[in-house]
Amino acid sequence: MSRPGLSCPGCGSSNVVEDDLYCQSQLVCVDCGSVVSEGVLANDPVGGSDVSYSRTTAVAKRPCANLIKGLQRLKAICRTLRVHGEIEDLSQTYYNQAYQHENFIKVSLQKKEVLAGCCVLVSCRLLNWPITLGTISCLLDADSMVVGVVYQEMIKILNIKAPIINITDVMEAHSQEYKISSPHVPEEFAENSKDLTKRAVALVELAADSWIVTGRKPIPIMMAAIYLAWQSLKPTKPRLKFSLDKFCQMAKVNKHKPAMKRIAEMKEVLCKLGQEIPWIREEVNPDNVVKQVEDIVQYRYALLRRALRTHENALLECEAGCEDSPTAPSQTSELVEETPNSSSVEQCEPKAENTERAGDGDDIPFTVSEPHGDPQDSQDPTPNWGKRVLFAPPCVIHAKKRRVAQSELKDVTGDEEISDSEIDSYIRTPREARDFALTQKMLSTSESKKS
């Protein structure tokens, strides 16, 4: 097709047509074959094809792909947890608000995915739906520390006051994750979910009364409670021989390593209460205490009062014995053997054996008066009071030793006072003296042979 108004600069002919060469069209002179113009690419609008006016002036813009993907992930989490529609709508609202914030709009895709789970978590807590942070971390396949950091940052940005859930509220939901009903396991290992939850909740309440729950992550505590509840409901030999690893494999759940420590701590508390049951004649130890869990849980309040009363009486007797004969260790040991509470043995030990520090013990009503001994020991203002009470937080009982600030080195003149404990360290016992003499004799004999 000829283009009017154009002429060839070479021959002056006006017979110029448009010729398509592959994807690029150009103007060519028919008479001489010269290319008149190649300005088609330059004449294209910048950025591609033209955009209509209605699309450029649209008020509601389409959300970005990452926001759409995050909302889809949020819906998938809600469907997995089977929450109602109100929680799902609230989660989407929080996610849209947090996503547009400057703290979350330029972050990694993993953090945006974690943000979706945190929005579900806070919505569940606000609407009284018991879900733990560990459950969200498992669904996202993310580190619980990362989820916790994003959660704290999100509630701070959105100014949300989320309530703290009680561990007993989530026991029912957590116990349903264990596949130990009759369709999944053999009949001798099967257990009803309601009975298991009831026994596990009672064990968790007992653990809370004895300071085991304080400052601990909830999932290992719940796992330990469910394991002990499952064993105690039918304390048969096959169940008692089942380790936590085998139980988790059978229930198809992931084992948490701290659960082993929580089981040991719960058994220790159960032993202290089991010793106070009047109709039990045998010694209660961690190996057979599971058989007594039903009676301990049923009468736990009475047993707690009785154990505390026995412990207080033992402390008073020990204190009176130490005041009467502070230099007679034989009488103290006889008093300890007569004490019915096993934990009182630790309370009557002299302070030289309990050197760990934990905190201030002024608010503890029952303390042991220290025997007269080294004045340096009596000057210690912070004894480990956790070893003098029946139940105390684990961080107090197993307190970390504090570093003592080292004094500046001073010139040694030889006139410094030497404490009795330091002098005792230099005095040799009869056995050390004999060993030293024998070593000296052997060295002299070997030297004489060489010469």
* SS-based class: mainly alpha
* Terminus-to-terminus distance: 125 Å
Order of helices and strands: EEEHHHHHHHHHHHHHHHHHHHHHH
* Spatial order of the strands forming the largest sheet: 1-2-3
Proportion of residues in β-strands? under 5%
The total of helices stands at 22
Described by the principal axes of the CA atoms, the overall outline is: extended
Rg, Å, rounded: 39 Å
Number of strands: 3
pLDDT < 50 runs, ≥5 residues = 327-381
* Helical residues, percent: 40-55%
Largest sheet: 3 strands, antiparallel
Mean pLDDT: 76
Descriptive account of the structure:
- The chain is 51% helix and 3% strand.
- The protein has helices at residues 40-43, 53-56, 65-81, 85-99, 102-105, 109-126, 133-140, 144-157, 171-175, 193-209, 218-233, 237-240, 244-251, 258-274, 293-298, 300-324, 329-338, 344-347, 375-378, 394-397, 420-426, 430-450, and strands spanning 16-21, 24-29, 35-37.
- A three-stranded antiparallel beta sheet has the order 1-2-3, with no helix packed on it.
- The chain starts with 15 loop residues before the first strand and ends with a helix.
